[in-house]
Amino acid sequence: MLSERLCHKKVLVVLDNVDHISQLEALARATNWFKLGSRIIITTRDEQLLKAHGVDLIHNVNLLTNAEDITLFNRYAFGTVLLFKGYENLSLEVKDELEWRDALKRLKRIPLKETLEKLELSYIALEDDYKEIFLDVACGLKDMFKEDAIRIFESCGFHARIGLRVLEEKSLITSSSMFLHMHDHLQEMGRNIVRRLHPDYPRRHSRLFIHEGIEDVLANNLGTEATKSIIISEELRPEIIMRGLGKMKELSDMCYGSEYCWITVDWKFNQVSQYFPKALRYLCWRAYPYNYLPKTFQANNLVVLDMSLSGIVELWKGEQKVLNKLRILDLGFTKLRTLDLGMAPNLERSLSFIKLLESVEVLDLNDLSLWEFPDLIVDLRELKFSKNNIEELPSSIGSLDLSSCRDLKSLPVSLCSLQHLRHLNLKECAIEELPEELGNATNYSNV
To answer: Which residues are in the NB-ARC domain (predicted)?
Structure first.
């Protein structure tokens, strides 16, 4: 009926806020429904819906600039683009300044219901696992490296790549080639979904992100197994944090501090920290003040470990643990003296942080699948590097274990003049000829 009436007329049709393909099937099934020259404009939050219907031209609407924001606000609030003076007193006739400030504080914690209902339409239509991914991004993983987030989601059993793609198509997230992004309003909407289930009981929230609630839960040891992720403010002291984690048995994501924080001068914990939940998959504690990880922390599920800028000298005191699931590691600017990366055979991220380890003396890279040698610190005393695919070595090393490096073809001539080199293990290497200068070296005690 509709097609018969419009096929002989040039028309402009605007289908606004489409959320299901059945709407397009009913109102604009095919181009021959409309006369040549007609224009059909469809607005939707779901890009996949447009692709499924065969829409030719898809345009992503950019966010307004700050100037455009103000112009739009003035037009709707005051009926004019240019705001003239004199409205300040008028606004105070309805509410005084303290009431306005109180209203703003409330909006930061409890957004307007009408606004949330509109934003939640896309969220409500998601499958349950995609909802969980969205809430994780909103409550902790926003602005994270995209590949890091994917590894964390995959370790939880989610199909992360397709899940993030669905969220992006529904305009719930945006992503560059490296990072995950989310609009502030959508982030607040996601956090409100978590918060409103138990508004007066933060300890029951699946994700904790409000400082006051977190401080109360940790300081009073009110944690429960309901908590899956937590973002901790730098204002909380470490002993309060460690004491409060004891009951959070299912905690999988924990983030403390920012990239700008440093070890607080009055934190002096030359000891082992107390407890980390074994369920942790993402542990980010920059400026970690303790010297070691807890002995009880097996870290079998750990995928991402970031303890840069910290006082840690060794991961575990007097022992090593195999971390088969660990994919991303950052220990830059720490006080590490010994580092065995053979305990994490599946590392994926570049080991560029190694050059930032100013105190490390012993470095074990055994069994890592490295093709390119990472930059090293100058004071490295001992390097273990057996069973690797490395083809070239840097000349700034003190002690080498290169056993079973079957692709190692040559040694740098400068290696022969290293003053501190004492031990060199070349068993089962592919080296056919040693440098002539090696015969003149007098500092070797064991080759």
So the answer is: 2-78
